[in-house]
Amino acid sequence: MQNEPLAFRMRPRTIDEVVGQQDVIGPHTALYKMIQNGHIPSMLLYGEPGIGKTSIAHAIAGTSKLPFIALNATTSGKKDVEDVVKESRMTGKVLLFLDEIHRFNKLQQDALLPHVESGAIVLIGATTENPFHDVNPAIRSRCGEIKQLKRLTHDDIVNLLNTALTDPKRGLGNLKIRISPAQVERIADGTNGDARKALTMLESIIIASDEIDDTFIVEDQMVEQMIKRVGVFGDKKGSHFFNLLSALQKSVRGSDVNAAMYYLAHLLENGDLTAVTRRLLVMAYEDIGLANPEVGGHVLAACQAADRLGLPEARIPLAQAVAEMCLSEKSNSAYRAIDAAISAINKGETGDIPMHLRDTHYAGSAELGHGGYRYPHDTPLGSFGGWVDQDYLPKEVRKAEYYKPVIAGAEKKYAGIYEKLKSFRKNKK
């Protein structure tokens, strides 16, 4: 075994060796053609860990033959940046790869940005966070390309693993290894599109396997143990975590139980119950709403049970809540109504509270003109309860209508009542 990790040794040396990301840097892309023609633009590479950001930077450096400097924004100081600037003055141009670029501070920016703007430094920044949220505008404005990388496909990972197994110089091709195609496929399945984890897992499996007659014998049991140990679900509170929350809500809203369970499983493997239960409660009222008002109580109970149980048992009530929301009738009418009212108020569509609705629980209120309110409970209306025809909105916005019912589930009944009461008011005006 060599001293450098397999994942490090197998980094692509040129852009033609990049595995996956063909939509970003494949031979048909503008970026590939620019690099081949000697023009390297400053760029931001955004995506989850292990999908090729660092590898692409090294491949671009290998293709361009530019002096290459790699820094990490979490550990680099102003002096490191000044050293890059000095290097650019000596060589004419350098390629700087800056990992975790969203952590770049102002002093580092001030030292570096003019040289990026002049072209003396080609900046390739990598981040796991959404650059439009977490990367400073000054950096973004100087990066002509912002590329979102995708998780590698199963076939991409299989090809990478097979290359590592057969490459005698950089990979494991100089070793005798008995590993089946099915085991390679399982490793690819178990690393969830993360190339670094896949190569690290492959190397760990080989090292941990029994060596018989100079041959490493890979057993299925060892593969499964390593998959469980490594974990494949990403970091808490990063952009990927919030993308999972978003995907869960949109899958529930779209009534896809299987997709919702998939994203719920990922979220629970991250272990952040608080974030998951908070999102589920919002969904119960935002997306199910008046179509099935009982769901709100059911989801609250499931979330409380999950908090008391803790993981892994918490998955049981939460799965039930998610399944119920997926299969329930849905309405966002109440949510849209409050947003419409807030928007109208912010636009200045307001007026004075009618006098008959103002507080009368103090001496002198009558002198201010308060009063005249009619108590609806004193006027029964069929089986509805009580209702009287009086204005509640300010006269300036009397015709405003924020609520628009959705004809679904229990809200069909509420919609009928709403329209009936509107007709009573029209008939009496």
Automatic annotation (TrEMBL):
CDD domains the record matches: AAA, HLD_clamp_RarA
Keyword entries, A-Z: ATP-binding, Nucleotide-binding
Keyword ATP-binding: yes
A Pfam family it matches: MgsA_C
Gene Ontology MF annotations: ATP binding; ATP hydrolysis activity; DNA binding; enzyme activator activity; single-stranded DNA helicase activity
SUPFAM superfamilies found in the cross-reference section: P-loop containing nucleoside triphosphate hydrolases, post-AAA+ oligomerization domain-like
A biological process term (GO) from this entry: DNA synthesis involved in DNA repair
SMART domains: AAA (SM00382)
Alphabetical list of Gene3D superfamilies matching this protein: 1.10.8.60, 1.20.272.10, DNA polymerase III clamp loader subunits, C-terminal domain (1.10.3710.10), P-loop containing nucleotide triphosphate hydrolases (3.40.50.300)
Keyword Zinc part of the UniProt annotation: no
Chain coiled-coil ranges: none
AAA+ ATPase domain location: 39-151
InterPro entries, alphabetized: AAA+_ATPase (IPR003593), AAA_assoc_2 (IPR032423), AAA_ATPase_RarA/MGS1/WRNIP1 (IPR051314), ATPase_AAA_core (IPR003959), DNA_pol3_clamp-load_cplx_C (IPR008921), MgsA_C (IPR021886), P-loop_NTPase (IPR027417)
Protein family membership: Belongs to the AAA ATPase family. RarA/MGS1/WRNIP1 subfamily.
PANTHER family tied to this protein: ATPASE WRNIP1 (PTHR13779:SF7), WERNER HELICASE-INTERACTING PROTEIN 1 FAMILY MEMBER (PTHR13779)
Name this protein carries in UniProt: Replication-associated recombination protein A
Originating species: Planococcus massiliensis
Phylogenetic placement of the source organism: Bacteria, Bacillati, Bacillota, Bacilli, Bacillales
